[in-house]
Amino acid sequence: MSPAALPLLRIPVGVVVERRRAESPWIDFVWRGTGVLPDEPETTPWTVVREQEGTTLFYAGSATIDLYRSETARYRDNLATGAPSVWIIMTPSEGAWPYAVSAVTADPAEGEAFTEAGANLVEAVPMPEVLREAIENFIAQHHVETEFVKRERRRADPEALARRHHEGGHE
């Protein structure tokens, strides 16, 4: 793996998910990511955080938000929205719980890319302030503005498009 492919900063987070009783004859529960906790709590994954009226919040486990120098423009765009988000990605699991935390990202494009696998649960949740500050510092240290250069189109050669006469063949 090239050094450029390695994250320059890894931020540990805890993931909170919600299980809500579904109003559907086909499924019993609806699952969704609801937030991230700064740092990794010393709690066992799938610990109940709160229960009330058909809704249960769980600490689902930990993940790391990996920050790459090449993606600073996307992180900056995320912060510039005024309501920055992180994306929680959960994949179907065969274990005791129906989903497993597979990733958390601050890159909007990466979050969207995880939606391509139809079985993944991908949820954008508000970014905690301490995380926003860490990402702002990362951008300040590593962002390099690159100028967009529009490529020049090659002009079509009209002679190349003209009819050619073949040597021993028909026209």
Characterization of this structure:
With 171 residues, the chain is α+β, with helices and mostly antiparallel strands. It has four helices and seven strands. The strands form two sheets. It has a four-stranded antiparallel beta sheet. Strands 6-5-7 form a three-stranded antiparallel beta sheet. It is extended and about 80 Å long.
State the total count of DSSP E strands.
7
Strand proportion, as a percent range, falls in 35-45%
Query: What's the overall geometry?
Result: extended
Which spans have pLDDT < 50 for at least 5 consecutive residues? none
SSE ordering: EEEEHEEHEHH
Mean pLDDT: 88
Strands of the largest sheet, in order across it? 2-1-4-3
Helix content: 10-25%
Q: What is the SS-derived class?
A: alpha+beta
In DSSP terms (H or I, runs of 4 or more residues), the helix count works out at 4
Terminal Cα separation, in Å? 55 Å
Q: What does the main sheet amount to?
A: 4 strands, antiparallel
Radius of gyration: 24 Å
Oligomeric state of this protein: single chain
